[in-house]
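Comment thread on ticket #2218

A.B. wrote:
> Attaching the input chain for the structure job we discussed in standup.
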Amino acid sequence: MKMKSFFRCIVFCLSLYSCSNSSKIIVPLSSKVAIEDTYTIIWNGESKAFRYVGDKWERDATYDYVFDVVQKRYKETWKSVKNLHRLHPEYDGKAGERSQSMYFELAYKIVGDVLHSKINSSLGNGSGNSDRAFRKQELNFELTGISSFAPYSHMRIHQNYDYEAGILTEIVELFKLKDGKEIPFMKNEEKAYFYIKGQLDAAPTEL
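C.D. wrote:
> Ran it. Output below, let me know if you need it in another format.
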């Protein structure tokens, strides 16, 4: 009975963290409003979820989601807002509400042929690295406000920008860092198509 109560407590704490985290808003680093001095890309895609069970990854379709990202690229800074929505009717709500929004701000610094980034986000702060053309990027976060009983404490995002094909693929990993060892928990494999500023010859849809 005590063990059941203990696990209910863990699930409750995780739910509180996820819900509060999805609606958390951080103050941007700059109040400057800029439209023309940025390159804006809108990403639209889907994600497949996997859970780490018994030393292997197993599909968990109930945690799949669709998403879009508005990514504003300035000279040495990126600002992005990600919105996601989980579609599966059996989603249990343990990762927060079905619909969530997240904010990311990355400040870049060139070191040799590598771009190092400092990350300020609604999930937590961290750092990353990329090639100078932003084709392959890795971002690492220490998640803030999470319970010590949670099965994860960190997030890592691997990004592969295939600009010529107009496709972004990502692997988002959740893991626990304990005594310097990574313990996998869940991952999401994302694929998105991008849209950029342009003009149309006519209305794209008509009824």
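A.B. wrote:
> Thanks. Noting for the ticket: The first strand starts at residue 39 and ends at 53.
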